[in-house]
Automatic annotation (TrEMBL), chain A:
<dbReference type="InterPro" id="IPR035906">
    <property type="entry name" value="MetI-like_sf"/>
</dbReference>
<feature type="domain" description="ABC transmembrane type-1">
    <location>
        <begin position="75"/>
        <end position="259"/>
    </location>
</feature>
<feature type="transmembrane region" description="Helical">
    <location>
        <begin position="168"/>
        <end position="187"/>
    </location>
</feature>
<feature type="transmembrane region" description="Helical">
    <location>
        <begin position="232"/>
        <end position="251"/>
    </location>
</feature>
<keyword id="KW-0812">Transmembrane</keyword>
<dbReference type="InterPro" id="IPR000515">
    <property type="entry name" value="MetI-like"/>
</dbReference>
<keyword id="KW-1003">Cell membrane</keyword>
<dbReference type="Pfam" id="PF00528">
    <property type="entry name" value="BPD_transp_1"/>
</dbReference>
<keyword id="KW-0472">Membrane</keyword>
From TrEMBL, chain B:
<dbReference type="Pfam" id="PF00005">
    <property type="entry name" value="ABC_tran"/>
</dbReference>
<keyword id="KW-0813">Transport</keyword>
<keyword id="KW-0997">Cell inner membrane</keyword>
<keyword id="KW-0472">Membrane</keyword>
<dbReference type="GO" id="GO:0005524">
    <property type="term" value="F:ATP binding"/>
</dbReference>
<dbReference type="InterPro" id="IPR003593">
    <property type="entry name" value="AAA+_ATPase"/>
</dbReference>
<dbReference type="InterPro" id="IPR017871">
    <property type="entry name" value="ABC_transporter-like_CS"/>
</dbReference>
<keyword id="KW-1003">Cell membrane</keyword>
<dbReference type="GO" id="GO:0016887">
    <property type="term" value="F:ATP hydrolysis activity"/>
</dbReference>
Length: 271, 263
């Protein structure tokens, strides 16, 4: 049988899914054990014991200075920034894309502009954001918004143009005005695609969040890993990176589930 | 009722339709046949208001047709005729909602129940009563076209425009659809324009067949001359118009000895 026609069984599929993760862990901990055997104080590849101590210290012990549990406080502030950033971006992108996707006049003005703006490297704008919005929460959220909104707009605009011309005509023959056509055709068609676009821009959103936190912040997951980098605390950085990855994956999964629940007709949501 | 006066359609240098003149009475079923690329679908889009004639005008009841699609002209395309984000029932209700609720595009309360009942009756009429809560992609191609027809008929349009509505269907299903469409046409006294590739379909369904063809062809400039309506054949329903079928087939194939046949 050709390799392209061979599909793994249920159990086999699960094993194949876990394989790379297991390999990664095994390789890491073998290397770690090797180095710790030579030097028990090695900081580069910490073992399970060191990492669990570090996690215990940030997750289940009150911080002496602030009286907070650092991991949870960091997670909360990072997720709040990310959530607000994503929501604001999604809202702006939806409004702009509906306008450019529906009205040729608006598209003629805005589409080339958005294309140019999306080429501006967001991190190059970061100093401007710090100068204009100060060093507190606002500039971090704005960085996420500046970073991902143009991409989502361009994606959604393309999706709006993909709505078959037949449907635009059909809605008009059913008596739709421009406004009701947007309400009953464009918006419902674009909402699941907006969620898909948000899922794709999650990686970029995290990137901008951590960059902003690393440069100017007093809490947050990105702030923490860049802070402890000074002490070469790989025992804390590695669990934080794993935690961030888990959070990112959960956000993606959440958006996917929402797509499936709210838009059962949308085939693209199953991926 | 519909009057086409010296209509031309050009895209840049390319002439697609030239000197179309036509009068169609209310309640006619016009099948439009012809070779591919001879402007049948373009003419349908002109009637629909999706495109504008370069010259000439099209009158509906003596008034020029509005320059954009509206509720007086229903349409069924070969594909993408129904809204995939709405269930079957909501697809059919949509027309009532859009035409009655100009701001929200939705109906509520008693109005909504009335619209619903009307839609259910229409679905029963086209044989989709059992599929009311399904989404279009759960339906077969034939059922989707039934839905598209039901959706268009809810608006009680003056004119129904069909662009190869059955082109993608199996022959058996096609026959069912022909029956449904003939029945609906007879009941509702609609004026129908249907583009089709299938001559037999055109002749069995239509009360009038319009044959589109290029009369003049310049081999050096294929786009210089457009197509016209070369034959406008009213069909006498009382007898089998076999000879008419032959006539049109010959016309479509570009035979030159047509006069001999028609005499």
């Amino acid at each position: 049988m050709r390799l392209i026609n061979r599909h793994p069984s249920r159990i086999g599929g699960l094993m194949l899914l876990l394989l790379p993760f297991v390999v990664l862990l095994v390789v890491y901990f073998m290397g770690s054990a090797e180095r710790l055997k030579l030097n028990p104080d090695d900081k580069l590849l910490p073992g399970v014991a060191q990492m669990s101590d570090a996690v215990k210290a940030v997750a289940f012990t009150e911080d002496k200075r602030t009286g907070e549990y650092l991991l949870w406080a960091d997670t909360l502030s990072s997720l709040r920034r990310l959530g607000i950033g994503l929501l604001v971006s999604a809202l702006i992108a939806l409004v702009v894309a509906v306008a450019t996707g529906s009205f040729p006049v608006v598209s003629a003005t805005l589409s080339p502009f958005v294309t140019v703006i999306s080429m501006v490297p967001p991190l190059a704008v970061l100093p401007i954001l710090f100068i204009v919005f100060g060093l507190d929460e606002l500039s971090k959220v704005v960085l996420i918004v500046v970073g991902i909104t143009p991409m989502i707009i361009r994606d959604l605009h393309a999706r709006a143009r993909e709505i078959p011309a037949e449907l635009w005509v059909k809605a008009q023959t059913l008596g739709a005005t421009s406004w009701t056509l947007i309400l009953r055709l464009v918006l419902p068609q674009l909402l699941p695609r907006l969620l898909a676009a948000m899922r794709l821009s999650l990686g970029a959103a995290w990137l901008f969040l951590i960059a902003a936190e690393a440069i100017a912040s007093t809490d947050g997951l990105g702030y923490r890993i860049f802070l402890v980098r000074r002490y070469l605390s790989m025992d804390l950085i590695l669990p934080y990176v794993a935690w961030i990855t888990l959070l990112a994956w959960l956000t993606d999964e959440l958006l996917r589930r929402i797509t499936q629940w709210c838009f059962p007709w949308y085939g693209g949501g199953a991926r | 009722m519909i009057e086409v006066r010296n209509v031309w359609k050009e895209y840049g240098d390319q002439v697609v339709l030239e000197r179309l003149n036509l009068t169609v009475k209310e309640g006619e079923f016009c099948s439009m046949v012809g070779a591919s690329g001879c402007g049948k679908s373009t003419f349908l889009r002109l009637l629909l208001g999706q495109e504008q004639a370069t010259r000439g005008q099209i009158l509906l009841d003596g008034q020029p047709l509005p320059g954009e699609p509206d509720a007086h002209r229903g349409v069924v395309f070969q594909r993408y005729s129904v809204f995939d984000h709405l269930t079957v029932l909501r697809n059919v209700t949509l027309g009532l909602e859009l035409s009655q609720a100009k701001f929200t595009g939705r109906l509520f309360g008693a109005q909504r129940r009335r619209a619903r009942d009307e839609a259910v009756a229409m679905l029963e009429r086209v044989g989709l009563g059992a599929a009311a809560d399904k989404y279009p992609q759960q339906l077969s191609g034939g059922m989707q076209q039934r839905l598209a027809i039901a959706q268009a008929l809810m608006m009680k349009p003056r004119v129904l425009l069909l662009d190869e509505p059955f082109g993608a269907l199996d022959p058996g299903i096609r026959r069912d659809m022909h029956e449904l469409l003939s029945d609906l046409w007879r009941e509702s006294k609609l004026t129908i324009f249907m583009v089709t590739h299938d001559l037999k379909e055109g002749f069995t369904l239509g009360s009038r067949v319009l044959v589109f063809d290029k009369v003049r062809v310049d081999p050096q400039a294929p786009g210089a001359y457009g197509a016209r309506i070369t034959y406008n054949i009213p069909l006498d329903r009382s007898r089998e118009s076999v000879s008419a079928v032959h006539l049109a087939r010959a016309a479509v194939q570009g035979a030159s000895s047509l006069e001999a046949i028609s005499d």
